[in-house]
Design brief:
There is one protein chain. The protein is mostly beta strands and 280 residues long. The chain has 2 domains: 1-128 and 163-197 and 254-280, Porin, CATH 2.40.160.20; 135-162 and 205-241, no CATH class. The protein has 4 helices and 11 strands. It has an 8-stranded antiparallel barrel. Strands 6-7 form a two-stranded antiparallel ribbon. A hairpin with a 4-residue loop joins strand 2 and strand 3 (62-76). Helix 3 crosses helix 4 (217-223). The protein starts with a helix and ends in an 18-residue tail after the last strand. Residues 1-18 form the signal peptide. Keywords: Signal. Residues 4-201 form the DUF6089 domain. It comes from Pinibacter soli.
């Protein structure tokens, strides 16, 4: 979280020194793709998301945006059609907090047209912290438990994953000019997580006794949950048995409506400032 704040403070002068200036709002859904969910978009797995930021127009097509996005992702093996995943019986949720700076390009000039498709891409950082609930309903954060042996001496190649990561947001959308200085948009944004541990699942099971000795019984319980099923296998899987798919990293997504509210006075840019005028 600290890295996100430092990142946004560092880029904020790029926007605050320029006009025309816009406040941007976002409301929609967040979603995830990874070891507990193959499909990038499922209505059952969607969670509410929102965002806010600031936008500076470079010209009548190109803008620069800085902002924060907030959402939640999650998935449950119980909802899978895959027999192996149902037997594994894992689940997770995580809040996502993202800070980003994006370049946005409108294909048409919204001072002349009411509709324009657009694309965007940029850089960002996000914070996540996967958790689940134990058999007593208590919330349990998974990263400290080293469920796949991260940080254990017996597995020197498995390092603890960081909860703040770099990402490269990109996406597409459609803008509709509602009024002067008021533009509605609908967009789909894609984020490579650049880690395979957004869901705390990646590689293989580790030795039961080694995990128990290093992290305790709760780590063992959250690493394999097939024994919680009515007819589930009570035997903890052997060391090295597949737990996830490390060949593909995770993704998360934001899709929904954006609203850009122009704050520039009569569309004029103060002399000497860097952003040319754009009139809606």
């Amino acid at each position: 979280m600290k890295k996100l704040l430092i990142f946004l403070i560092a880029v904020s002068p790029l926007l605050s020194m320029a006009q025309p200036f816009h406040i941007t709002l976002f409301g929609g859904l967040s979603n995830y793709q990874g070891d507990l969910q193959d499909k990038p978009y499922t209505f059952s797995g969607s969670k509410a998301a929102f965002g806010l930021g600031a936008q500076c127009d470079i010209n009548n097509h190109l803008s620069v945006k800085a902002g924060m996005m907030f959402g939640r992702v999650g998935a449950d093996d119980k909802n899978s059609v895959d027999v192996y995943r149902k037997a594994r019986n894992l689940n997770f949720q995580s809040n996502i907090t993202e800070g980003s700076v994006l370049a946005q390009y409108d294909f048409f000039d919204l001072s002349e047209k009411r509709l324009s498709p657009y694309v965007f891409a940029g850089i960002g950082f996000y914070h996540f912290n996967p958790y689940s609930y134990d058999t007593l309903g208590r919330k349990v954060f998974l990263q400290p438990l080293s469920t796949e042996g991260q940080g254990l001496a017996q597995y020197p190649d498995r390092k603890p994953y960081h909860l703040t990561q770099f990402t490269i947001p990109f996406g597409i959308g459609l803008h509709f000019k509602l009024a002067e200085n008021l533009v509605l948009g609908y967009e789909m944004g894609f984020r490579p997580a650049l880690t395979d541990y957004l869901d705390d699942v990646s590689k293989t099971y580790v030795d039961h006794d080694a995990l128990l000795a290093a992290k305790g019984p709760l780590a063992v319980e959250m690493s394999y949950r097939g024994d919680e099923l009515k007819n589930g296998d009570p035997t903890y899987p052997p060391d090295g048995e597949k737990r996830g798919g490390a060949n593909r990293k995770d993704w998360y997504y934001f899709s929904g409506f954006s609203l850009s509210i122009g704050l520039s006075k009569n569309g004029h840019t103060p002399k000497g400032l860097g952003c040319p005028t754009r009139v809606y």
